[in-house]
Design goal:
binds magnesium ion, 3 domains, Rossmann fold, binds thiamine diphosphate, single chain
Length: about 675
């Protein structure tokens, strides 16, 4: 059956590829033997046609919003005007990706129809006038908080909740593992800023949800983890699958609570909702005893959904930061997920332009500003060329904004260095952290509130000319150095297998600018980090927790939200296999994802670390893997599966995947000689 579906898909989608390629299809109908003894791969001719056409990317509303002048701030008092106005920057044509989440349809649409735009949260279905079960009450509360999707492996402990969710108009998606469900909810929160729910049953479901809860915490992504609990009468007796869910798995969350008394439900659920979506967003776990779900709250029971206003900067905060950056010789802005979450990348680019201050992205936040912008100097952390860290080290002023200075972004807590001047703008600025040099100033503010006020104030002032000119020259040199260090090698490659740098260049060439990339964890991701140029904010999903298994579920969540955009999961063979059963979820939900699996038949990252210890072959413990026919697995799940053994085949496969009206897996043969972009290829390593 799956084979048949695959055949149909194949017939449909070969057409956009040039005839030469269709003659030598890369799609294999029978499983391919691979590994060292693999037969010569089928090599398609290089497709020379223009990439598959895409609709113009959808522009969303945020950019239409005028920058609100902030009356509370004074004009910046710098030297007289002598600097020309910055030229209009084409990069500013991009707009913030608003939470243009679609209203889910109750059932998968017969065809991949464009779902209706989502109404505002207030437009939730009217709540029932009479008494409501706790299950329905929680569902209504989630809907008010913006939840439109719940991802779950169902359990008998929360049937009342499932019924409530359905009645409240929340789309419940069955997944193949709670880890997949949690990653989908996490990615949804990271992408849209609006929480989704992941639901599991008792200890077993909660344990499987754990990785996604942890990831949401590290990514500051809003999310609800709902866990069915044993009946209250059985609690404390080591009942079936019983644990203390709030203190164990809930300890991974920003906030966790177990509901016990009916009367406390409105207050506790209200607190949980507020915590998930205000301040630094994060995961909230609610443990719900099975018997409580069916109890009824009286008619008219209200939920307190009031939220405190986002933190705003004080007037002298803005001036202090502007002077700090304006007066420095080599300032830099280190920008993280808080800028993306506040959908204020445009303002960041304006600030950078006005001050001529370059921007470096936090690790896995490379989409925070358009990478083609001349002031973009790369992404910190894994995969960055050495020039990125050097530039940060050379900075005499660092503005860290919307970024928690994670271990990876800060290069092992080396940035900012002792004695280096820095300031922090964040909803939760780091006033003190062990080993962190004190910031000159910390400003508790939402990135958008800060940036808009700063830009408004700056537009009324000017920079001192000599400083601006010097900076301009330095910025050009620094940008050229980063471009040279991050450009993929373009020398022809004839194998073995696919060249990972070329594959990333191919993706950049073929994907539309608004395509969303979701990466898993593993060394394959270093080539993405090094070479992919993000052109719009909100086009990247990656776990700062480094959780393997994230890529595919995250891409599925993105494809559900943005049915009109290309969504690509990039994973290694190790990480992909952890959640690959979700391919069936993608097929069932008509989530048009492209999964690119870099298969080196090993846990390559860990093997690299083992090799660095110098133990040779004996030191390679538990890192070699066998072969999996990933393309065949995709077909078995009802998706399209294509194996690419050459650069040319990869190019064709991506074109076919883009043209396919359903999920496609591209299985990439990667020789083990590829270790990282900084290590020269050595065949057969
Ligand atoms: C859930 C989880 N388990 C273990 C690790 C440790 N780890 C990091 S990368 C890696 C290997 C990834 O292998 P693969 O997905 O094949 O990518 P490769 O490094 O080979 O490119 C492992 C085991 C992790 N990050 N996440
Ligand atoms: Mg691998």
């Amino acid at each position: 059956m799956a084979e048949e579906r695959s055949e149909e898909a194949s017939a449909e989608t070969v057409s956009p590829v040039p005839a030469g390629s269709a003659d030598a299809p890369v799609e294999h109908d029978t499983p391919v033997e691979h590994g060292a003894a693999a037969e010569a791969p089928v090599e398609p001719e290089v497709a020379t046609e223009a990439p598959v056409e895409h609709d113009a990317p959808v522009e969303h509303g945020a950019a239409a919003e005028a920058t609100e002048p902030d009356a509370s701030v004074e004009p910046v008092t710098t030297e007289p005007a002598s600097v020309p106005e910055p030229e209009p920057d084409p990069a500013l044509a991009f707009t913030e990706e608003l939470a243009t989440e679609h209203e889910p349809s109750p059932e998968p649409a017969a065809e991949a129809a464009e779902p209706e735009p989502q109404p505002a949260a207030e437009a939730a279905e009217p709540e029932p006038a009479g008494p409501r079960t706790v299950g329905r009450f929680i569902a209504d509360a989630l809907r008010l908080a913006g939840v439109r999707y719940a991802f779950t492996v169902p359990g008998e402990s929360f049937l009342g909740l499932l019924e409530g969710l359905q009645a409240a108009g929340i789309r419940v998606v069955a997944t193949r593992h709670e880890g997949g469900a949690a990653f989908m909810a996490e990615a949804h929160g990271q992408l849209t800023g609006r929480p989704a729910a992941a639901i599991g049953t008792r200890a077993v479901g909660a344990a499987n949800l754990a990785i996604g809860i942890h990831t949401a915490r590290q990514d500051s992504a809003p999310m609800f983890a709902l866990v069915g609990q044993v009946d209250r009468a059985f609690r404390g007796r080591e009942a079936f699958q019983e644990i203390d869910q709030a203190t164990t798995i809930g300890g991974l969350a920003t906030h966790a609570v177990e509901l016990t008394a009916l009367a406390d439900v409105p207050r506790l659920v209200g607190d949980a909702v507020r915590t998930a979506v205000t301040g630094r967003p994060g995961p909230v776990l609610i443990s719900i005893p099975e018997d409580l779900l069916d109890e009824e709250l009286p008619a008219g029971t209200q939920l307190d959904t009031s939220r405190p206003a986002p933190a705003r900067p004080e007037g002298d905060d803005i001036g202090a930061v502007l002077h700090f950056l304006a007066a420095a010789e080599r300032p830099v802005i280190l920008a993280g997920g808080g800028v993306l979450r506040a959908r204020t990348s445009t303002d960041l680019v304006k600030l950078a332009d006005l001050l001529r201050v370059p921007v470096i992205a936090g690790w896995r936040r490379g989409d925070v500003v358009p990478n083609d912008h001349p002031l973009y100097l790369g992404m910190a952390g894994y995969g960055s060329p050495a020039v990125v860290r050097e530039r940060l080290e050379r900075a005499d002023a660092i503005l860290v904004i919307g970024c928690r200075l994670s271990e990876i972004t800060s290069f092992g807590y080396a940035i900012p260095a002792e004695g280096q001047a820095w300031m922090h703008v964040d909803v939760e600025p780091l006033d003190e952290r062990a080993g962190l040099p004190a910031a000159k100033r910390t400003i508790a503010a939402d990135a958008r509130a800060f940036l808009r006020a700063a830009v408004t104030r700056l537009q009324e002032g000017v920079l001192e000319a000599a400083i601006a000119d010097r900076r301009q020259a330095t910025n050009l040199t620094d940008r050229a150095a980063w471009e040279a260090a991050s450009a993929p090698d373009d020398a022809p490659w004839s194998g073995p297998g696919v060249h990972p740098g070329h594959a990333i260049a191919t993706l950049r060439r073929l994907l539309p600018d608004d395509a969303i990339i979701a990466t898993d964890a593993g060394n394959f991701g270093l080539w993405v980090a090094r070479h992919f140029r993000f052109r719009r904010p909100g086009t990247f999903l990656g776990p700062t927790s480094g959780a393997m298994g994230y890529g595919l579920p995250a891409a599925i969540a993105a494809a559900l939200v943005h049915r009109d955009r290309a969504v690509v999961a990039i994973a290694g063979d190790g990480g992909f296999a952890m959640t690959m059963a979700e391919l069936e979820t993608a097929v069932r939900e008509k989530a048009k994802v492209i999964a690119v699996v870099f298969d080196n038949e090993r846990y390559g990252t860990i093997r690299m670390h083992q090799d660095r210890r110098g133990g040779g072959a004996a030191g390679a413990i538990a890192t070699d893997l066998g072969s999996i026919d990933f393309a065949g697995i995709a077909r078995a799940c009802g998706a399209r599966g294509i194996r690419a053994e050459t650069d040319a085949a990869f190019d064709v496969a991506i074109r076919q995947a883009l043209a396919n009206d359903g999920p496609t897996l591209v299985h990439v043969a990667l020789d083990r000689g590829w270790v990282s972009p900084d290590v020269a290829f050595a065949a057969g390593a």
